């Protein structure tokens, strides 16, 4: 993972109680992670709040709500659910929204990485994906998921097509040497009725990244930073981002992809 200099870990992870190790030994890389995220090591899981857990199965975030209900979220692209999704990835609307067949030369910048589900679908279809996620905790969970996907023979090639940068995508887009063909945005939007699992992951993203979003600024940077198209995920009946009508849409039951066609020669 590339780390931009601009991020401040103590701001984004201040609502976390600390980092807890389920393994018998605490490894040097666990120390490095705790330091990078500005988290204290803790020896007991608290009854309330959130805690980052390091275990043999990877990194996960454990959150306890006010009723003491626990919710644990990690990134596992090697699960059976993912295998099934990868097998029929060409039918995914997000792939159709990209409007072209994947080839090695097409890089998509996923400027709102989150837990990387959309990026993984794009890479599974064959695109090279540059993910930018500004929240260091989400970036750490995604980095861990990608590393483990790189160890499985089923997902190794997909993982290898994804690069991750922890930082602000507006800066990233402004500083890129050459504009990307496609920029993809999935800004946070109000909760929808989704499957329990997706809802759980979105809930965690919301908890951690809420208030960080400035989609208008990001949208402007994306329109300047792409040559071919900007694709924006929206709720099915939600307004256009920045009230700007798209060139066309690819709609599903829950979400819609708004496609903004650009016709800009690369610099
Ligand atoms: C709805 S989530 C994206 C979920 C993602 N598409 C997935 O499949 O898991 C939006 C994410 O965008 C990130 N974000 C918002 N503004 C950003 C920016 N300017 N630069 C980088 N990341 C940003 C938030 O931290 C949050 O994780």
Entry keywords:
single chain, alpha/beta, S-adenosyl-L-methionine-dependent methyltransferases, 8-stranded mixed sheet, 10 helices, binds S-adenosylmethionine
Termini distance? 27 Å
Count of DSSP H/I helices: 10
Helix content: 25-40%
In this entry the ligands are: S-adenosylmethionine
Shape: globular
Enumerate the spans where pLDDT stays under 50 for 5 or more consecutive residues.
6-12
CATH architecture of the largest domain: 3-Layer(aba) Sandwich
SSE arrangement, N to C: EHEHEEEEHHEHEHHEHEHHEEE
> What number is the mean pLDDT?
88
Q: In which order are the strands of the major sheet placed? A: 1-9-8-7-10-11-13-12
The CATH superfamily title of the largest domain = Vaccinia Virus protein VP39
Would you count the extended β strands for me? Answer: 13
Architecture overview:
With 267 residues, the protein is an alpha/beta fold. The chain folds into two domains: 2-74, 3-Layer(aba) Sandwich (S-adenosyl-L-methionine-dependent methyltransferases), CATH 3.40.1630.10; 80-261, Rossmann fold (3-Layer(aba) Sandwich). Residues 6-12 have low confidence and may be disordered. The chain is globular. Helix 8 (169-175) runs parallel beside helix 10 (215-225). An eight-stranded mixed sheet has the order 1-9-8-7-10-11-13-12, sandwiched between helices. A five-stranded mixed sheet has the order 3-2-4-5-6. It starts with a strand and ends in a 6-residue tail after the last strand. The protein has ten helices and 13 strands. The longest helix has 14 residues, at 136-149. The protein has helices at 9-12, 28-37, 80-87, 93-97, 117-124, 136-149, 156-160, 169-175, 196-209, 215-225; strands at 2-3, 16-21, 41-42, 49-55, 58-64, 70-74, 107-110, 128-133, 162-166, 180-185, 226-235, 248-251, 255-261. Bound molecules: S-adenosylmethionine (SAM). The site of S-adenosylmethionine (SAM) has 22 residues, from helix 5, strand 8, helix 8 and helix 9. S-adenosylmethionine binds at residues 111-112, 114-118, 132-135, 138, 168-170, 186, 188, 205, 209, 212-213, 218.
